Amino acid sequence: xxxxxxxxxxxxxxxxxxxxxxxxxxxxxxxxxxxxxxxxxxxxxxxxxxxxxxxxxxxxxxxxxxxxxxxxxxxxxxxxxxxxxxxxxxxxxxxxxxxxxxxxxxxxxxxxxxxxxxxxxxxxxxxxxxxxxxxxxxxxxxxxxxxxxxxxx
Length: 153
Description:
This protein has helices at 2-19, 24-38, 128-142; strands spanning 42-44, 64-69, 81-86, 89-92, 109-114, 118-123. The protein is an alpha+beta fold. The longest helix has 18 residues, at 2-19. It is elongated. The relative contact order is 0.16.
């Protein structure tokens, strides 16, 4: 009887502690975000506003923004636009043709923003290591200075 009481007492103490441990998916996302930060990319959990109603996203999944800021002197070096992956493919806010690099992004990437402050890819962080590499590669290609290549891996 005493062993049963001890077992339940230990279970009552350890149960809540085990419940707060991060899952495998949470640890993977934390690793993605940390690697992005080390490469000079900021991670934003805020939803993106200002998407025109005519550009409907392919899914309603919550998205996380991986972006790299533009310095004032770099703003004029990039063409500002908003690209959204719809059910029919990539579409731009400006109506111009979409750059071919967008086709290389993982399926979980749904929005690419190039504005006066940053270049950012909004995605659901699905697709593993290869998907993360593709997102970082696009940011590296599109930013005037690129990312620090030694920090991408």
